[in-house]
Amino acid sequence: MSTADPAPQLKLGWEEWVSLPELGLPALRAKVDTGARTSSLHATEIETFGPQNAPKVRFMVHPIPGQYDLEIPCSAPITDRREVTSSNGEKEMRYVIQTKLEVAGQTWTVELTLTDRRGMAKHMLLGRQALTENMTVVPGERFCQPQLDYSVYSSASIRKTAPKRALRIAVLSREDNYSTRRLVEEGEKRGHTVEVINTTRCYMAINALAPEIHYDGKRLPRYDAVIPRVGASVTQYGTALLRQFEALGTFCVNGSEGITASRDKLHAHQVLARNKIGMPATAFAASPKDTANLIGIAGGAPLIVKLLESTQGKGVVLAETKKAAESVITAFRGLQANFLVQQFVKEAAGEDIRCFVVGARVVAAMKRSGAEGDFRSNLHLGGSATPVRITKEERSTAVRAARAFGLNVAGVDLLRSATGPKVLEVNSSPGLEGIEKTSAKNIAALIYNEIEDRVRPAPMRRLKPAAS
């Protein structure tokens, strides 16, 4: 019966370079102290999250002593919480985690307590519990094992080597619908903590030095990312709340500016035009004297008259004749409603294509057809959806449209016209139900892939050479 070869003897000095790969810390200088029982890691902003039966802790690590502009966000399951007595006799309750420690190619699991060691020369202490039988400590020597280098914390290096970690994510939503439930379900399946926050129950402390967001009487914790599902009726307040999250440095899947621009149909069409993205001929005017010219700019009847704040196909009217168009325009003006007039693309035949964009690519597409007798293809109004293959030009148009608004997740609605794809709308809060069921793709997972890729350790400023 063969047995595994024993690990080679490892000689350690009182100071050594170590790695904590599971925490995304490839290089730390640790003090090896056999007089201390427990090992500790310098950590700040320590806070718990996750379910009570499997709690986790998140914290920030400054791997280079004295250089606090570099912060590495870390998280790990909590294995214990215990009282630890420091070398000066002070007692402190600390969270305990387990993680892999690597020295000179040898890796083993150690327990670490988390504490704020700012001011200490070393940001990690290796106690005797972390040492194995094959290790010898020589107190009079240092760096018996190969030395590492702090250059591994350059922006490019840390982004490549950062491990996946448990994230704390907020979904801004006032509705318990399919999209919200899928985002929670998928996030928790991947080990993240996902909390649904009712947008209108938040309130903000607007402060230059310490901006805060409060919810139900308590200050909200720090989130790694926010997924906004801001309803059209609360766009103004929802985007103000997002600006507060942005001020806190939180990654917002879709930013406040992109949501604001996409929700205002006039602004949205101006953005599309500025970026030379194809769209139906569109006109807007305030004076009732301009009705005839307005109709002419849109290409004449039949045409679409659309309220600026319309959603899900509501407030969108097809005027089949010039007289009908004039009547609708007069009626909308009588209600003091803001609207625009748009070319009716006949060849689309009541169908449009929803391209679901995540990051820099279209991850799924579906063709939506209106109910019989209805030119609108919205699923909420009884339309149907089928999978569709889109052209290279349609794919490029959808991605460019989402990028024009700075949106990482968007539903881009296209019409197929004789002169190429025309963008009808860019939706900054697209529903997941129709696209997931039609495409049979896990869109929520693709959104989390984007979040995990974007939420990385903070890049550092230029390093000064570290003293040896």
UniProtKB/TrEMBL annotation:
Presence of keyword Cytoplasm? no
GO cellular component terms given for this protein: ribosome
* Domain ATP-grasp, residue spans: 269-452
Q: Which domain of life is it from?
A: Bacteria
Question: What GO MF annotations does this protein's record show?
Answer: ligase activity
Q: Which SUPFAM superfamilies match?
A: Acid proteases (SSF50630), Glutathione synthetase ATP-binding domain-like (SSF56059)
Sorted UniProt keywords? ATP-binding, Ligase, Magnesium, Manganese, Metal-binding, Nucleotide-binding, Protein biosynthesis, Ribonucleoprotein, Ribosomal protein
What Pfam families does the record tag this protein with?
RimK, Rimk_N, Zn_protease
Q: Please state what class of enzyme this protein is.
A: ligase
Q: Answer yes or no on keyword ATP-binding.
A: yes
As cofactor, the record names: Mg(2+); Mn(2+)
Enzyme Commission no: 6.3.2.-
Q: Which residues form the signal peptide?
A: none
User: What InterPro entries does this protein map onto?
Assistant: Asp_endopeptidase, ATP-grasp, ATP-grasp_RimK-type, ATP_grasp_subdomain_1, Peptidase_aspartic_dom_sf, Rimk_N, Rp_bS6_RimK/Lys_biosynth_LsyX
NCBIfam families referenced in this protein's UniProt entry, alphabetically: PRK10446.1, rimK_fam
Q: Which protein, by its recorded name, is this? A: 30S ribosomal protein S6--L-glutamate ligase
Origin species: Leisingera aquaemixtae
Gene assigned in the entry? rimK
